[in-house]
User: Fold these one by one.
Assistant:
Number 1:
Amino acid sequence: MRIDVVSIFPTIFDALEVSLLGKARTTGLLDVRVHDLRDYTHDRHRTVDDTPYGGGAGMVMKPEPWGEALDDIVGEVDQRPVIIFPSPAGERFTQATARELSAAPHLVFGCGRYEGIDERVFDYAAELGDVRLISLGDYVLNGGEVAVMAMVEAIGRLIPGVVGNPESLVEESHEDGLLEYPSYTKPSVWRGREAPPVLLSGNHGAVAAWRREQQLVRTRERRPDLLAD
Ligand code: ADE
């Protein structure tokens, strides 16, 4: 999969060089390219924002650098990309979104800052690819970068080969609509706290039933909204 990220803080994405995603980049499973939006400006101050038409607080990202960045990135690749703009005003990002996007050959992420990006950029981007505005959750971040980091990690780990043991993907929270069961390892008693004896019983059926029950109990306690769905 190819992933392009456009941001005015490209170094934030240095973190994608480590751990499983970093390894996937060296082995060629993931081709991540980070672009500095300011490289697509032409003035001495490398200006990316301006005051909002109609007035109001804050600044708006100018359309011209975005147009040039998108042209440059999309022109390089044959397939029509999915172009994602993280936004608190977007559709909610879920495990299902991650799974769907992990099947796309090319994702482009555009990180907004300030009060957002000139709305015409989304309209123009729709000529180049399938545009999605996606929110990480019902809270506001200072910009899209941290949201993109989270999305790239959630999507990237679903690409076959990125996570060494594919079975570990199946039993996780949200994969079957429930929260994950609790995990324990040795020692069997730690600081007076015992690991659940059923897990040491060697009875695979009993272990599976206990884990399922724990998933339901946890989900009912912590995320009843998931059960309602
Ligand atoms: N940018 C600012 N807040 C955001 C959020 N909650 N999700 C995605 N992008 C954002």
Number 2:
Amino acid sequence: MSELVRDLLRDLSPYTAVEAGEAVDLSDNTSLWGPPPQAVDALRGVNSAVLARYPAIPPAALNRALAAYAGVREDMIVVGCGSDDLIDCAMRTFAQPGDTIAFAVPTFSMVPTFAAINGLRAYAVPFTPALDLDVDALLASNPRLVYLCSPNNPTGTALPRSTIERVLREAPGTVLLDEAYGEFSDAPGFSLARSTERLIVTRTLSKAFGLAGLRIGYAVLAPALARALETVRGPYKLNAAAAAAAAAALTDGLSWVQEHATEAVAVRRRLAAELTEAGLAPLPSDANFVCVPCRQAERLGERLLARGIAVRVLRGLPPVTAALAASNGAALRIGVGPWSVMERLLSALREEGAACA
Ligand code: PMP
């Protein structure tokens, strides 16, 4: 990288997504069911007057809808350009350069990147073999900020509520709980945010709500912290068209979203059972994807793509479970979608003679 660039950026590179092309894309955990029709209608209703003006701050209808959805006061909501934006801003709001951010690995790949960009010291602790947190090891770093991801990307596993509560009791600073996949499990973030001062919960409309293309994320946190986060985020990160679609998705479109999230969970269970039947060993998942440790992940990923199905190939994951040790840290992360798509995936895997030993 050029010497003109800040030193701490030298080892970083831009995020790359899987190039799915014409393939069915199961690589990024977005929704194959798409957005609720009410959100699409709201987007069509955005007129030129709305486009010509800056969006309202705060986006009143959206904040109202989010507060009702989360069961919190409106002054506990901060919206952003995807939850990425809020995770990045939270690091700048609640930690200073040189402070430590502690998190368990493997986890969301952008976290070490945002930490580095914000000048934080990243302290990564492997998950336990049961994919729970090693709380003592995390807190031994005296972190200014703890990042928890539940359900976790890329493993899919959710943390027990008691583990999250212990971190909240014992962490010396603030705790960022990333619940991007919260709609696919019994996620405790909203209820914890109502009673805990030092917690920032981030969520997104990119997954269960099927609106990844519009980039809508939000944080739920105590009002005083919300004001600080809002200051750091700055104005106008969420555009007016996205705000209109999001408000519709959270009100008139909400039952549609919830029905499809329930279907995604049913598909996930069925997919995990069929993969196990086929001799593979998916990790337990509470998200809208499954993670399958697999020595042959690279080759299988290529073969599936050749058959028109894009999945995420993961390499170099820390060997925290016996299966990840056996696979040398390689795995496939496979998003769920309508069962007809899963059938295509399963028959492609069978035809490839997928065995992950
Ligand atoms: N957190 C986790 C755990 C994720 O997997 C993702 C997206 N893959 C995000 C946050 C960011 O999502 P978005 O910016 O679309 O809200």
